[in-house]
Amino acid sequence: MQRLELDKDIKPLSEFRAHTAACIQQVQRSKRPVVLTHHGKSAAILIDVGEFEALLQRIELLEDIETGESQIDEGKAIPHDKALKMVLNRVRK
Question: How many Cα atoms within 13 Å fall on the side-chain side of residue 37?
Answer without folding.
Answer: 8
